[in-house]
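Entry 14. Structure prediction run on the chain below.
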Amino acid sequence: MRSIRKHFLLDFIYYKGVLYPTPVNLNYMWSFGSLALFALIIQIITGLMLALWYIPSTEVAFESVEFIMREVNYGWFFRYLHSNGASLFFFVVYIHMGRGLYFGSYMYPREKVWYSGMVMFVLMIATAFFGYVLPWGQMSYWAATVISSLASTLPLIGQNLLLYIWGGINIDQATLTRIYGLHFLLPFVLLALSGLHLLLLHEYGSNNPLGIETVDNIPFHPYYTVKDIYGIVVALFFYLIFVFYMPNILSHSDNYIAANPEVTPTHIVPEWYFLPFYAILRSIPNKLGGVLLLVLALALLFVVPLISKPIIRSGTFRPLYQHVFWLFICTCILLGWSGGNPVSTPYYEICQLGTCLYFSFFLILNPGCILVENLIYDYYIEKYKAPNK
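Output returned:
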């Protein structure tokens, strides 16, 4: 064993992975990071298998997907693993982000970990959207048309940028070729960023539910590898239930119809993991205003370490913040539900309400909660110190 660890890379992996010191009180919420990496690896492996048969051509892309499903040995299995794997990936990452917000894992000195995670999240969104377009079904085609046309709202450069994205005056072969190339490349970029994310995490170590720095640490292996393996097994159980018994429940039936530029679907809707942001996008009639709101919604996630600085890091000891946090979670669910419904009353008004609540969390409710909690904290600290003077 010692002779093997003499190699620099193996020695680095041994000390940063096996002997990595971790707080003694981490719970299963800290397993979602490794689950996200597991889901990414599944997507890369299944994506490579599908790439062996997929043809990025507007003429036969849809037929090539059907060929994979019906003629390639276990092609249906890899297709359903890949399509449902995207849902698993986003589900795990959303919980991972929520845990970071609740327990203050984004705060100093770990803000660089949060920033790298947000870059990965944006790339995830782009990668998943490109993958959604590739089957070249009816919903894929029109989703690509609607979303890519948002670039035209940019002042001065919008129309030229749209022509560059499309590779012509409309969505055609050049568009599909570019989307396929990006969808193939970006998962490997995500994998590389995952390594950077882990390196930044190991710089100061993991945060813990108490939100305080402790010296009572234990090695990552075997104490937390066992938890991570258990989490993966449980996730696999539910994941495979969807793959074998409900493979299409999270997809839209219109995507099993070949793309037809002459027939617009009555209701264009993206995958479920895009719906909260889609609801924000369409909450304003003006297209440019919707784009700006969408960009701002993502930007607020980036700047959380700058605008949220409570004295008490963990939500465990912030009873007021707990209510605000769960209101935010309910708001995201409300946005997702309303975003999946037609743009009509009352869903349109619910999208607007959810959008207001979303921005209120970052700009009003959370800062106000922090202000009140910090004042209460200072009051009791001074009250405690007074008798001791």
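The chain has two domains: 2-268, 285-389.
Filed with the rest of this week's runs.
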